[in-house]
Design brief:
- Helix content is 37%, strand content 17%.
- It is α+β, with helices and mostly antiparallel strands.
- It folds into two domains: 107 residues, no CATH class; 218 residues, 3-Layer(aba) Sandwich (Extracellular Endonuclease, Chain A).
- It has a seven-stranded mixed sheet, with helices on both faces. Strands 5-6 form a two-stranded antiparallel sheet.
- α2 packs across α3 and α11 runs parallel beside α12.
- The longest helix has 22 residues.
Length: 343
C-alpha cells in the first residue's frame, strides 16, 4: 500500500482547539469521506469546516485512518490530553505538535500495512478439507478416472490415470517431475501417487488385497538413493513393491538405508501376508515430509493402515532404525497386522 503523508508534511501552523486528538481523528474520518461508523471515538458527527491548516492535517490522517477501525488507540492513550498551540505562543509548541505528528506516522503505516498471506500448500489444503489422508482414501475409493479427475480438480489438483506401459513411458526416473506432472495425482495399477508442486513424490496409497509384488527398478532405486547423498541411502518405496507399489520415481524417495532395509521392510513384509483379508478391506497409506523446497530427501515417513474402521498410524524419522522410536513403532504395527489376520 502506498501512503501519502503530504497532509502531515505540509502543516506549518496549528490552530488552537480545546479537544483531544481522538476528536481530531473523528474529524479526520469525516473530512476524508470515511463512514462515521469506522471512526475512532464515539462517532458523533461534527460540522464540516472550511479550509484551515488543522483541516489539512485531519485530511492527511484521515487518508490513513479510513481503512482501519481504531488503529491508533495505543498512541491516543498516551497523548490524547496533549493540545496543539498557535506558533505565536512559542516555538516549543510547534516542536511538541510535530513530535506527536511524527509519532503518528509509524503507527499509521503499521496500521495500514497488509502482511502478505503465504500460499497454502495444495496437498495440505486438500488434507485439511477432506479430514485427513484416510478420509481422502475413502473419498476416492471406487471412483472412475473421470470421477477422480473431477474430485481432485475441486481442490486445484490434476489427475492422470495410467496403464503400466503408459507409466513406464512417463516415469523415466527423473530427479524431479516437471510440467503437467506437478501437483498431480497419478493412478497406476490401482495405486494413487501424488507428485507435489516441487516435482517430488509426497503421498501414496493402495487398497489391499489382492497383493501381488510389482517389478523393482533397481537402477532407479540406486539413482534416487544418490540424489542428495553419496552413500547411506536407498531409493525407498512409499508403498512397497511387495505390496504392488509402483517401481519407479513416482513412488520413491531417498530413504536411510538401515531404516529402509530394517524396520520399514519388516512392516512391508508383514503387510504382504494380508492376502486372506477381504478384498480391498485394508488401506495402506504412506506419505513423506520434506524439510524445505530445495531437498529431495524427506525428513520423515508416516504410515497409516486402516482396516474395518480402525486406523494404525506411526511416523518415523528418516534416520537409522527410523529414529529413536522406530523399532517400537515397527513392532506396534506388526503386532496390529498380526491381530488382524495378516499371518
Amino acid at each position: 500500500m502506498i501512503v501519502t503523508l503530504s497532509g502531515l508534511a505540509d502543516v506549518t501552523f496549528f490552530s488552537v482547539r480545546q479537544r483531544h486528538l481522538s476528536g481530531t481523528l473523528n474529524d479526520a474520518h469525516q473530512n476524508a469521506g470515511c463512514p462515521l461508523s469506522r471512526a475512532s471515538g464515539s462517532g458523533t458527527a461534527r460540522p464540516a469546516q472550511t479550509t484551515s491548516p488543522q483541516m489539512d492535517i485531519r485530511r492527511g490522517i484521515g487518508l490513513l485512518v479510513c481503512e482501519r477501525q481504531n488503529p491508533l488507540e495505543a498512541v491516543l492513550a498516551e497523548s490524547h490530553r496533549t493540545e496543539l498551540t498557535s506558533p505565536s505562543q512559542s516555538s516549543d509548541s510547534l516542536n511538541t505538535a510535530m513530535k506527536y505528528a511524527l509519532l503518528l506516522v509509524p503507527a499509521l503505516l503499521a496500521a495500514c500495512s497488509v502482511a502478505p498471506t503465504p500460499a497454502a500448500d495444495p496437498y495440505d489444503a486438500l488434507i485439511r478439507a477432506v479430514g485427513g489422508e484416510v478420509a481422502l482414501s475413502e473419498a476416492t475409493r471406487d471412483l472412475t478416472p473421470e470421477q477422480a479427475a473431477a474430485f481432485f480438480a475441486r481442490y486445484g489438483m490434476g489427475f492422470q490415470a495410467h496403464t503400466e506401459l503408459q507409466a513406464q513411458l512417463a516415469d523415466g526416473c527423473p530427479t524431479r517431475f516437471t510440467g503437467a506432472d506437478l501437483n498431480t495425482w497419478h493412478s497406476i495399477n490401482g495405486g494413487y501417487y501424488y507428485i507435489d508442486a516441487e516435482g517430488r513424490p509426497r503421498s501414496a496409497y493402495r487398497y489391499l488385497p489382492p497383493i501381488t509384488a510389482a517389478t523393482r527398478d533397481t537402477t532407479c532405486q540406486s539413482t534416487v538413493g544418490n540424489l542428495d547423498n553419496p552413500d547411506g541411502y536407498d531409493g525407498g518405496h512409499l508403498v512397497g513393491s511387495q505390496l504392488g507399489g509402483w517401481g519407479r520415481r513416482a513412488n520413491m524417495a531417498p530413504q536411510e538405508q538401515n531404516f529402509n532395509r530394517g524396520n520399514y521392510a519388516q512392516i512391508e513384509n508383514q503387510t504382504a501376508k494380508c492376502s486372506p483379508l477381504t478384498k480391498s478391506s485394508l488401506t495402506y497409506l504412506a506419505r513423506v515430509t520434506y524439510p524445505n523446497a530445495g531437498t529431495n530427501t524427506p525428513s520423515s515417513w508416516t504410515l497409516e493402515l486402516k482396516l474395518n474402521g480402525e486406523v494404525m498410524t506411526r511416523t518415523f524419522d528418516n534416520a537409522p532404525y527410523g529414529g529413536p522410536n522406530g523399532t517400537t513403532s515397527r513392532q506396534q504395527i506388526v503386532n496390529w497386522l498380526i491381530s488382524k489376520g495378516c499371518v
